[in-house]
Structure formats: C-alpha cells, structure tokens
C-alpha cells in the first residue's frame, strides 16, 4: 500500500516555521497565502546547502507544495529523477533569493532558477492522494506536461517521489541533445557574476561605432529583413540589446537620391499609403540607405495599439502612425550588415540625433536585465521584448541572434472559415483558424469568437464572403466551439485560405488547437503561405546544441566526465572564459584517448577547427602561425577535437612583445600542506603590494594557486621575466623554509617554487575557467582574496561543479581586473 500524502499540520506551515529562526535568516515567515488563486504559481529554487539540489514547488491551497530534487528536472522522459517531499513553504518564499546563514536550517545560497504558472491535469488533491500528480508548466525554462509519482513505501523515513517528463509531450527532448540544468544554470532574477562589469572593463561597448567590417557596395533594390526567433525565456550569459517588441507592422525604408520608399516585410510598396511618413523620412537628409523599423499607433497611455494601427492604415488618420527605427543595414555606398549590431545602432542614432519630427523615432534600448524589462513590459500592457546580440551581424533571414519574448502567446493564423453571428447575418460570429505544419500541410487550430467590434465583425464578414468556397481547404476535425457574447457557432462557411489574422491565446491543447483565444487584427503584411505554428524553444538558449562525435567517450575515469560533458562545460562558461582568450595566442592540451592516455600540447594548426583562427605569421617571425580562440564556436570545436586545457600568452596580438600581465604560479613540492600554499599566496600578495602592485587570485585547477598582476603593456617579455625572477629570489632568500627559487621536483620537496618562468617570451599559463587534464578535471577558478581562507585545494571546483558555483555567485571577484592600468616602475632599476 502506498504511503499517504504528507498530512498538513493543524496550524498551516507549522513545520516550516518550527525549523527556522527568523531573527537570523532572511527567509519569510510562514503565513497562509491565497487559497483560491486564479493562476497557480510554481517556482524552482536552486539551493546549494550541504550539497546542491533543486527545490521544486507548486502552489495549492495557499501554500507551496515542495519537493527536493537532487539532480533537477530533465526534458528527457526516460530520465526519472528522485524528488523527496519536504515541508510546505509559504507562497511568499517564491521571491526568496539569497544566503541562509551558517548554523541555520538549510544553510547555503539560494537562487530562483525558474518560475511561472502550473495547471493541474485533473483534480490535484486526488492526484496527491493517489500519488500521481500530472500537470502543465508554463515557466521561463520549464514547459509542457510533467508528472510526479510517489514511490515511498510504508515506514519510509522520507516521502520519495519521481519527477519526470511525460512521454509524447511536444517539449520532450533526449538528454543527449539537451540538458536544461546544464544549459541554463543561472537565476532568472539576477545576472550572474557581474558579467556586465567585465564587459565594461573590457571596453566591449565602444563609444564610437566600429565600422571595420563595412563593405563598399551598390544599394540593393530589394532587402529581406532579419526576423526574430520566438523564445520562452531569457537565454543567459549573452550581451543582449533589449528593445521593445512593438505591436505593429514591420517596415523597411529604401532611400535613393533622397527619395524614400516604404516596403513591408513581404516586399509590398506602401509609400502611397504612408506618404506622411515617407515625407518625414526624407527630411532626415539621408541620400542612400536601407533603414529597418516598425510602424505603430500609440494609445492614450503611450502603448502601441494594433487595432488603431489597422484603422489608421486603412483610414484617413494615418498621420497618427509613428515609425520606430532600429537598424541601418546599408548607408551611402557601404553595406553595414557585417558590422556589429551595437555599432549599427550607434550609426542610426547619430543619423536621427538632430531630428525633431513627431513620427520618426529611434528605438531605444533598455539598460536593465532582460528579465526585468520583460516583466515591466507585461505589466504596462506591451506585447513583449526583443533581444538582439550586441555583436551580431544583420542577416536576411530568421535568426536566433534576435529573439522575441512575448507577454502572452500570440501569433498569426490563416482563416479557413467562419460562422455568422446568431443575431446578425452580416457579422462574423467565429473565425475558423489554421496553420501549416512542418510538411507544409494545412492544419486546424480551433476557433476564435471574440476580440472584434461590431464594425470590425461586419468588415471581416464582407471580406470573407468574397473568398467563400463550397469545400473546406482541409477536412474539418470537429465543429468549432461556441463562444460567449451572443456569437453562435452556427453553420460553418469555408473560404480560400488567404486571409491572415493575428490571435492572442492562452495555450495550445494536446490536439493542436488554441484555447482562450482573442482576435487582435488582420495581417496584410504576411502571406498565408508563410504561416506556421510558432514553437518557442523553452529557453534552449540562443546557441544550437553542438554535434559531438563519440559523446559517450569517458575523458576522466575518476569523475566519469564524458566528452559531451566537457563540450557542454566549455559552451556554458564561454562568456567567462572568452575574455581571457580573446586576441591572446593560445596553446591547446589535447587528450584523444582521455587524460590517462598520451597528451598533446598544440601551438599551431594541424587540423581545421572551426572558430579557431591562425594569427599573422609576422606576429612571431620564423615560427608557424599562432592560434587564437575568441568565439563559442572555437571553444566547442576545440573540445570536440579533445582539447581539455587552454593555455594563453601574457600578451595580446595588439602588443605581442609587451605583456599585459605577470603570473606567479605557486607550485607546491611533495609534502607541502595546503595551509602553507595559502600562506604563500598571502606573503606573495604582500610583497607585490609593497611594490605598488595589485594582484588577483585564482586556483590553478591542480595543486597550487596563480597570482596574476595586470599591467599596461609597456615592458618587454625579458623585463617582465626579470622582474618576476627578482621577486621570487627575494621571497626564497627571506623565507627559505617556505620558498625555493629553483625549479625541479628535487629542489622543492617540502617547499613552494613560485614559478616565474611562465613570464618568458612565448610561455603560457592555463587560462581562468579552463579545465585541467588531471584526475577529477579540476578547473582554474578566479576567486576573491577574501575567499582564500575558505579554499580546500587548488582543484576545489571541477568540470562537474564549476558552472553551478558561478550561477550562485552575486559578485565578480575579478571585476576590477579588467580596469587595472598599473605599471612596473623603473624596471629594471637604474644601477
């Protein structure tokens, strides 16, 4: 007999409150919440207490039913993860993100990993009692149909369940293709590890446009616009430009000899319809260009109104139309499509800077995190937001470098038929909708019977009667559902599948129909042939899953890490690792047969690896071309070619003979306790501070620590090495019982060699966030000096744990590293 569900205490949330001292923890006190909520909330909190786990919570009867899921959710129906039922939590806990202090129950870091709404399938109380709870999730990372199944037996100390994805669900994916906890490890509320500060320090948002990739070209007669891909959540770790998603019509402008033509995304010329806009565009004084934007009509609250736009286009009040411009793919005699987006936007903003007209406006970007902007947009009634990669080119197709996130589900459908309104034979009662499937076949999508006025209903009826046919374009699957508001389903009347409408709706049913639909307007700018079902990826990020040969091959027997695990690790840390690789010669440590086999140290290209560039041979004369890795593609292809470690020079290509850092590698000999390594780091830092130099700390991923001193590139390699050697020699002379200035295992038994040799010409050090080809696959991790005392070893974080560690950090310990401009004064000293 299955164990009964967890009984509620006589006092709601009594178990929750009894376990916590609210005078010392920021967690909310347990108070009963709303018992009858219109929309039930769910939240998944990532919690690193004694060990990492995911707290899965569903709102019901004013509390959050809670399960601890050690391995987190999986989109693979074949994966059944343990979920242990724990005490109910208050609804207010859904907003908790922070640190539970040491000594308190559940001590550790908590982040909000996902959140949204859930819909039970059937009676949830009955499901809990029977031990089988089926439900839909509508979150920022999790979506579709899920199930919790109780497996606990009578007498068990814990109430064990299984969390699994339902088979046949549209969102299901094998774990070999996609692992959601690996791909999306970060909070949906906070930006992890201060990446914005790093970018600011690296100067990735230049004040002047970078037009190095502009190409001289003739102005094309036509231009296909770049289109955005629908996404269910904000992908992490990408430098996004966040713009408003305008509820309007996409519009391009071709300017030739100063004359403007307004072109829809489908290539139709609307200049005659929008002559007021064309005239105002011509006032910009631009002779030759293609501009890209969207036309809207704003309501009294300043929010775009799609119905008002339609009325304005077809009526006499098109002077109310506002044109928001957001891109400039061509200007003058230059093709700007290869220029990074942030630079194209800077050019466009400069073109519009002095324009005072009421109808032409620049589409401003929002500086806040995308998730916050989306939340604000939904609250004030906007359609959603658009995310664009700041470094992306302009491509004439749909692309995942532009993403659209909507406040509610909304897309275009083809009208397959209609019914008359019960009390008005000349007005539409319901529209029968359809779309094309992946094979191009028409499919029914259900019906919509609300959202238009009586005038609009008569206009729709008049247009549809002209398209009426005796037979449906696709065989009807079922009669359309009846609708409220006096509109009866009546007799179906079929039409040629030509008219396109935009519909807002609540969700898709399992049989492919839409539910809770509302009409938003006609779409004259989109052909029926292009209408398909928009399927939002559940935040499967803006990067496609890498194809990995032999993904099951074990790289490290000690940890069980496979080649696929390593590829996914490097893809997940790309935004942290790439700043340490960018424009810096790199050497690669490859392990074709795993780290137990022979390792290869590669400085030059012997096989083609996409995304890995060869540098100009003149940078290092009389040697083969050096390599540089500066893209996600390069990282992934390197891991695909069995690269485990990335080692970099101390100089960049801009100043190849003048290092911009000095590295002190604390390498402990046999018998040196870890406490002595920590002490050595403090002593080395103190020595450097006496010389007026600030330093930053990272684990080596192996036995020791690295101390890095950033510099202005002023001295050469020989001077940098000489300086490092002098520091090390001084340390060895001053504290000979701890340090030695000679390399070699025999010289450093019981002592620490501070390796200064890494500062010579062409010498390298393992990059921050790189894995190490050693048992356990440790990772070189940047840390704050204040964290030194808490470190247990130089390999404290591994490929399995490093990315989760980053997701739980609030501050970047190396944020100021990128801004440092210090110098080694008077070196070598005058004699």
TrEMBL record:
Record domain ATP-dependent DNA ligase family profile: where: 314-449
> Among its keywords, does the record have Transmembrane helix?
no
InterPro entries noted in UniProt: DNA_ligase_ATP-dep_C (IPR012309), DNA_ligase_ATP-dep_cent (IPR012310), LigD_ligase_dom (IPR014146), LigD_PE_domain (IPR014144), LigD_pol_dom (IPR014145), NA-bd_OB-fold (IPR012340), NHEJ_ligase_prk (IPR014143), NHEJ_LigD (IPR052171)
Question: What cofactors does this protein use?
Answer: Mn(2+)
Which top EC class applies here? ligase
CDD domains annotated for this entry? Adenylation_DNA_ligase_LigD_LigC (cd07906), OBF_DNA_ligase_LigD (cd07971), PaeLigD_Pol_like (cd04862)
- What does it catalyze? ATP + (deoxyribonucleotide)n-3'-hydroxyl + 5'-phospho-(deoxyribonucleotide)m = (deoxyribonucleotide)n+m + AMP + diphosphate
Molecular-function GO terms, alphabetical: DNA ligase (ATP) activity
Keyword DNA repair on entry: yes
Give the keywords, sorted.
ATP-binding, DNA damage, DNA recombination, DNA repair, DNA-binding, DNA-directed DNA polymerase, Exonuclease, Hydrolase, Ligase, Manganese, Metal-binding, Multifunctional enzyme, Nuclease, Nucleotide-binding, Nucleotidyltransferase, Transferase
**Region span, Disordered:** 468-492
Q: What is its EC number?
A: 6.5.1.1
Question: This protein is called what?
Answer: DNA ligase (ATP)
